[in-house]
Amino acid sequence: MFLNVFRSALLALLLLATQVAAQVQQQIDYETWETFASQAEAALDDRDTSSDQIESIRENATEWRAQFDEAQNINAPRIQTIKDQISSLGPEPAEGETEAEDVADRRAALNAQLSELQAPGIKATEAYSRAESIVTHADEIERAREAEELMSQTPSPLLPTSWVAAGKDVLGIGAGLTSEGQDAVSEARGFNGWTQLLLYLAAGAALIYGRRVVDNLPSMLGARATGDGRAVIAFIVSLGQIMVPMIGLFLIAYAVDSTGLVGDWLRPFLLGMPLAGLAFFIGLWLIRTLFASTPVAYDTLHMPQKSRTLARFYGTGLTIMLSLHVWLSHAALPLSGFVRRDGAPPQIPYEVSEAGAGVIHFIIMLGGAFFLFQLANILRRMTRYYGNEAAPYRAKILAGVGRLLRLIVVVSLVLVMIGFVNGGNALFWPAVKSLALIGLLILLQDFIADLYSLALRSKEGARDSLIPLLIGLLLIVASVPVFALIWGASLSDLLEARTRILNGVSFGSFSISPGAVLTLLIVFAIGYMITKWLQSVLGTQILPRTKLDRGAQSAAVSGLGYIGIFLAALLAITSAGFDLSSLAIVAGALSVGIGFGLQTIVQNFVSGIILLIERPISVGDWVEAGGQQGIVQEISVRSTRIKTFDQTDVIVPNSDLISQTVTNWTRGNARGRIIVPVGVAYGSDTRKVEQILREIAEDQPTVLIDPAPAILLMNFGADSLDFEVRCILSDISGGIGVASEMRHQIAQRFAAEGIEIPFAQRDLWLRNPETLFAKKGDSAEERPVQIEESVEDTDARPPQDIRSVGELPGDADGDGEY
C-alpha cells in the first residue's frame, strides 16, 4: 500500500515537472529575445552607452538567462526514456554491416523522436549561451569603467590651488546651508506641529543620552550570572549600545524631515546622519568590547592594560573619522572612494570641485591614517603579549593584519597626495571596514562558544570542542560576500557569482557544482545512517538468536558495515551525477600511489578482511601475539585491539596476525592445560606424594576427569625429587587461579603428612683457615682467605673441621666480630 502511494506521488511530481517545463517553453518569446539580444550587443559595443543603460541591459539579460536555464532540461524524462529504448536495441551496426529491418525501422523512429524532443532544449541552450555572453560583456565594461574611475588622477591636495578650491567649496556649501536655514526659520513661524516635533526630538535625545545607561548594563547583569551565562548575557545586552542610540537618531532625523522645513541643502546631510551614526555606534561597540578595560567574563584579546587603553583611544578616533567620512560622502562629496551609481544617495545642489573634494578627503584620511597606524602597531604585537605561551590563531591573524594595515596606510596616503583620491579612498576605508568585520567575527565566535558551553551546562572543554570551531568556520565562509561588498562588489556581482557557482566548476569533462556535492553528502549520510541502523538490528536482535559464536557475529556485523558504506558511497556518487568511468584515470593514478606509499595500509586492510573471513581469531579469544597476551576486543580492517591482563589496550596491525605466529588459547573451546611443578626432599615416599598430588588435582572444580590429571616424576634434581602435575581445565582463562589454589593445598597437605619441600643447599670450603688464627705481630705471611662455594650435595666430598663463624677462636660472644 505504501509503495503504491509513493509511486503515485512520484509520477504526479514527474508529470507536474513536465507540465511546468512545457509552460516555460511556451512562455519564452524567442522573437522578443532575438530583438533584445541584437540591440543589447550593439549598445555594449558603443562606448557612449551610459552606465545606467549598461546596468539595465545586464539585468534584463540575467532574467532571460534564468528562463533559458530552466528550459534547458525540458522533456528530460522522456529523452532519457527514448535513450534507454535505443540502448535496448543494441549497438548500431558498423560501416558495411546491416541489422534486421524491423530493428532498423524502430531505431530510426526512436532517433526521430529523440531529435524532436531535444530540439527545445538545444534551442534554450544556445539562447542561454548568448545571454551569458551579454552578461559577461556588460560586467567587463563596468569593471573597466570602475578601474578607470578609481585610477583617475585629480589635482594633488598638497597644491595651494587645491586648498583655494576647497575654501571656495566650503564657503559655497556654507552659503547654501545658511540661506536654506534662514528660509526654514521663516517658514517655521507658520509651522503647527511643534508639539509632535518636540516630543520626537526629546525621545530621540533621551535614547541617545540613554546609551550611557546601556553601557553599564552588561557588567551589571553579567555580574548576577555565573560561568558562561555571564558572557552570553553580557554580549546580548551590549547590543543595546547600538540599537538604543540608533533608534534615537532615526527619530530625530525622521522628525526633522517630516516637518517639510528641510530643503535640498539640509536634507542630504540629515539623511546621512543615521548611516554615519550606525558606523559610529557599531565601531564604538566593537572597540569597547574587544578592548574592554574590565572584561565581564574573560579577555577576548590578551594584552597589557596600557595597550588596551591606547587601543580604545585610537579605535575611538578612527571610528569618529570613519563616521565623518561616511556622512560627508553621502551628502556632498562625490569623490569618496567608489560609490556605485545604482546606489548613489541624494547630493546637495552644489558641484564640489575635484581639487576641493580631494583636499577634504585628504584631511579626513590623514586623521584616520594616524589612528589606524597606531592601532595597527598595537595589533602587530599581539603574539608578543602571550610571552612564552603559544599564541592562539586569532592573535597570529591580528598580528598579520596589523602589519598589512601599516602598509595600506602608507600606500593610501601616497596615492591621495599624488592625486589618486578615488584610489586612495578605495584602498583605505575598505581596509578599516574589513578590520571592523574581523573584530565582529572574533566576538561572534566567542559568543557561539559561550552559548554552546552554556547549553552543555558549562562542561569542561566545551568552548574548545569541535562544534563551536565548525560553526566559526561557517561564519568565516559566510562573511566572504560581506568582504566582497566592502571592497566594491555590488549585489549583482554577488548574484552573478552565485549563479556561476551553482552551475558548477568544470575540470575538462568533469564538473562539480554545490548541488551535486550537497546531493552526494545527503545521500551518503542517509546510506551511512541506514547501514548503522542495520548493523545495530543485526548485532542486537537477530544474530544473538542464532547459533553463531560471538566472533562470527562480530565478523558479520563488520562485513555488513563495509558493504553498506561501499554501496552508500557508490549510490551517492551516481546520484550526484558523477560519471564513474571518468574516475578510472584517477583510480589508476591512486593505484600507483597505493603500491608505493600506502602498501602497509593496504596490507593491513587485506589482512583484516582475511581475519574476518577465515576467523583464526575472534572477539573474546585469549591470544598471544608479538609478546603480548590478552583478550581480543575488536577486529577492524586495519588493526586488532587486544586488552592485556594489566588492563592496557595493545593495537596490533592485522598484517602481523597473518604473517607471524599467533597463539590462540581459546580457539574453538576454552579448554587448556596447566603444569604445576613440585619438588620434595630425597627420602620421601614417591607413591604417597603421587597420591596426594592426584587427590589435590582431582579436587579442583574446573579440572577435567577425562582426560584425567597426570602426576609425573620428572627428574632427580640436585636438591629435590621433581614432580609435575599436568591437568586439563574446562576454562583455561582461570588457569593461574587454579594453579595458585593447588600450590596452597600442596603446601598444607605436605606439612600435615611430614613431606619436606627442600630448598637449595650451599657448602663453604676454607682453603687456608690458618690465616684466621694468626696473631697480631706474628711474622707469618698474611694471606687472604680464599672461599670456595660448592653447589654439590654435602655427601659428595668428605667434611673437614668446619665450624660456624660464631664458633671460631677470637669470637668470644659469637656475634661474628673479632
Q: How are the strands ordered across the major sheet?
A: 6-5-4-3-7
Terminus-to-terminus distance: 110 Å
- Stretches where pLDDT is under 50 for at least 5 consecutive residues are 9-25, 335-343, 789-818
Percent of residues in helices comes to 55-70%
Rg (C-alpha, Å): 46 Å
Q: Given the helix and strand composition, which structural class is it?
A: alpha+beta
Shape: extended
Mean pLDDT figure: 79
Report the strand count. 12
- Characterize the biggest β-sheet: 5 strands, antiparallel
Topology summary:
Elements: H1 2-27, H2 30-45, H3 51-71, H4 76-88, H5 101-150, H6 160-188, H7 194-209, H8 211-224, H9 228-238, H10 240-258, H11 266-290, H12 305-329, H13 354-379, H14 393-417, H15 421-455, H16 466-478, H17 480-486, H18 491-503, E1 505-507, E2 510-512, H19 514-542, H20 550-575, H21 584-596, H22 599-614, E3 622-625, E4 628-635, E5 639-644, E6 649-653, H23 654-659, E7 663-664, E8 672-680, H24 686-698, E9 710-716, E10 721-729, H25 735-753, E11 763-766, E12 787-790
Antiparallel strand pairs: 1-2, 3-4, 3-7, 4-5, 5-6, 8-10, 9-10, 11-12
